[in-house]
Amino acid sequence: MLKPAEDRGGPAQPLLTVRNLVKHFPVRGGVLGRTTAVVQAVDGVDFDVAKGETLGIVGESGCGKSTTARLLIRLIEPDAGEVLFDGQALGEVDGGLTLSELRRQTQMVFQDSFASLNPRLTIEDTIAFGPKVHGLADKDARARARDLLGKVGLNPDLFGRRYPHELSGGQRQRVNIARALALAPRLVLLDESVSALDKSVEAQVLNLLQDLKAEFGLTYVFISHDLNVVRYMSDRVMVMYLGRVAEIGPVEELYANPRHPYTRALLSAMPSMDPDRRTQEAPIAGDPPNPINPPSGCRFHTRCPFAEDVCGKAVPALTATKADPAHRVACHMIDAASGHSKAGSLA
Amino acid sequence: MTEALVSVRDLRVLFRTGERTVHAVNGVDLSLAQGEVLGLLGESGSGKSVTLRALLRLLPPKRTTISGTISVAGNDVVAMDEAAARDYRGGVVSMIFQEPMLAFDPVFTIGEQIAEAVVRHENVDRAAGRARALEMLDRVRIPSPKRRLDAYPHEMSGGMRQRAMIALALACKPKLLLADEPTTALDATVQIQILLLLRELQREMGMGVIFVTHDMGVAVEVSDRIAVMYAGRIVESGAVRDVIRNPSHPYTRGLLSSTVHGSMRGKRLEAIPGAPPNLATAPTDCAFAPRCKWVADACRAGVPDLAPVAPGHVAACVRLGAAARA
Q1: A41: which of A67, A264, B283, B323 fits an S-S bond (Cβ 3.0–4.6 Å)?
Q2: pLDDT truncated to tens, each residue of chain A (347 aa)?
Q3: CA torsion, points B166, B167, B172, B178, in degrees to nearest 10?
Q4: Distances (CA, A) of A142 to A131, A183, A221, B283
């Protein structure tokens, strides 16, 4: 029987420690296929994920949130930086983590529930596939698959022999969640996992994710463009903009007191649910810039109402606010010594 | 009372492909006054987009059976011939889509495509068409519109393309604009800009708008009235305030309670159990009954009609009282 891997460092050690993570994609063009430009998808990202917490990652398209998730599970290789899983780095000579062990302990659920299932495998075979690869006998793997189907709310006698195309989007996403849990992982990366679902089904799946987290003691990284859903699911939230962290902090603190001008714009761009308090003015103009050749200095300075000379020149460091050391913001208005005329005003 | 801009009576749309039959729309009645914005809210498969396409006569005639009447600004949309439909589309009614890349021809510039529509509908020369194109790009606030006139669709960002599509749709000053999830694919900070732009253009040009969306917040931002669709029927409609503050149909109530908003952390979401029906056969009773917590025998007796809840606010539920007391 597959059991979750042993906790190594105890509760104080973060399950994930990410330092200076970098991934640039070359853009090739011309007849010779030479590199003509570079997409700086993830450019120096630092964060931790504590055991048992849910870290939400938000940002607009091209901000690097999905690339970050793919780097964490090594679907793509980082160019630089360090990812420690419960204190262990991947492939260290002495007691390091093997790739297969990392992938057993970290699982991912994607947005497209259909594309992420093999159309030729029944639901039961799909869920049993991973455990078999990791050495479980066929009979035990099937029993596990049927058990997990029940846990995600699908009757194994009714659904086990069906194929993905015979299920609705919500049911398929439940299958993907069951498959992710089949290897008893400790960390689950949810990349826009509920974004394609209708609202009434989305609520069912969000409830399910909360139940499973409690039952199996899971840690989630929850990626979404939907700020309402992220607020509901997360303990802490990280806001990304063009490959960098703009702001990170405890969820209610960040939503109540957003500091970074981008976070503030993002929050006030949410449609109002109150007919008497409709949005009167767009918080920022224009589209997010192309991540190929992003702006210098603070990457938000081209759209920021408070931008000054220093913003185009120096990259702001993630700096803790005075009110809450866990709330950190990358803006020159936080750092009193930055040279911005409003320096220190956001601290 | 002035005549309604749009009047739809008992619209039914049936698709037949091979051995599959889908009853997509099952008796929709709706009317829209000149200058009014109706938000058509529903989940995938509720028939909201099909209703919109029927209004523009976009459904493939070979596979589609349409019954009922659709009248838009005096045009009988169901009966008109193809030539009349070509004058109607773009002249009287225009549509904007979720994916502007598919609405534009990739091998012509934005300016050429807008000018072409103007020349076709208003019988003016190309110079006048181009002048109108420039005016429209300016109105939708595309920066440096003169230069953008000669840009190809792929050279623009997503938000700019969406603005260009709005310019194209409004170039011939239609009386009615149909919007099919035009902001769903956009980033949050861009979505709000496009919603505000549409609201402003609608006011300036005084046109009617039917705005299809699955997002309650978006519907609240743009609409005067909201109609909620489920399984090919309108189950509730009324002024935005009434529908949001006093949702009366159990489906609308469920939709509101399962939509995450504000600070709901730690609370369990009141999800609607089950999934929408597949519509292989036309509903003969309340299509929401299998998912409804107030279901009773009366719900199975027939398809419920829209009944008044308050002035201008209707809902199609035989158990309105039971749901309201909950």
Answers
A1: A67
A2: 577 788 888 888 999 999 999 999 998 877 778 888 889 999 999 999 999 999 999 999 889 999 999 999 999 999 999 999 998 888 766 667 888 889 999 999 999 999 999 999 999 999 999 999 989 999 999 999 999 999 999 999 999 999 999 998 899 999 999 999 999 999 999 999 998 888 888 999 999 999 999 999 999 999 999 999 999 999 999 999 999 999 999 999 999 999 999 999 999 999 988 999 999 999 988 888 888 889 999 999 999 999 999 999 999 999 999 999 999 999 999 988 888 999 888 87
A3: 0
A4: 9, 13, 28, 39
**Whole-angstrom Cα distance, residue A9 to residue A239?**
28
CA A235, CA A107: separation in Å to the nearest integer?
20
Please tell me what DSSP assigns to residue A35: E
A118 and A126 in contact (C-beta within 8 Å)? yes
> Which candidate from B221, B255, B265 shows the least CB-CB separation from A199?
B255
Distance (Å, whole) CA B326 – CA B323:
5
Mutation target among A154, A202, A273 for the B interface, most CBs of B within 10 A: A273
> Tokens in use for A95?
């007691």
CATH numbers and ranges of domains, chain A: 16-257 (3.40.50.300)
Interface pTM (ipTM) of the complex?
A: 0.88
**Smallest Cα–Cα separation from B264: which of A190, A212, A227?**
A227
Q: Let me know: does B65 contact B88? Beta carbons within 8 Å.
A: no
Task: State the Cα–Cα distance between residues A346 and A304, nearest whole angstrom.
Answer: 15
Pairing label, strands B176-180, B233-239: unpaired
> In terms of DSSP bridges, do strands B313-315 and B307-310 run parallel, antiparallel, or are they unpaired?
antiparallel
For strands B208-213 and B176-180, give the pairing. Answer: parallel
Q: pLDDT tens, B46-78? A: 999 999 999 999 998 889 999 999 999 999 999
Q: Measured between beta carbons, which residues in chain B are less than 8 angstroms from residue A169?
A: 44
Q: Domains of chain B by range and CATH?
A: 4-92+174-263+274-325 (3.40.50.300), 100-173 (no CATH)
Nearest Cβ partner for B192 among A199, A202, A282: A282
Query: Given an 8 Å threshold on Cβ–Cβ distance, is A231 in contact with B265?
Result: yes
What is the C-alpha to C-alpha distance for residues B41 and B36, in angstroms, rounded to an integer?
16
Q: Is A150 helix (H, G, I), strand (E, B) or coil?
A: helix
A307–chain B nearest CA distance, Å? 18
Q: Is A291 on the interface with B (CB under 8 A)?
A: no
Subunit contact A199:B259, Cβ cutoff 8 A:
yes
Which residue, A245, A195, A191, is CA-closest to A71? A191
Q: Which of A263, A217, A246 minimizes the C-alpha distance to A6? A: A217
Question: Among residues 6-45 of chain B, which lie with CB inside 8 Å of chain A?
Answer: 43-44
Dihedral in degrees, nearest 10, Cα atoms A121, A127, A129, A133: 170
Whether the CB-CB separation of B27 and B286 falls below 8 Å is answered with: no
Q: Evaluate whether B170 touches B198 at the Cβ level (below 8 Å).
A: no
Q: Locate A213 and state its tokens.
A: 């987290």
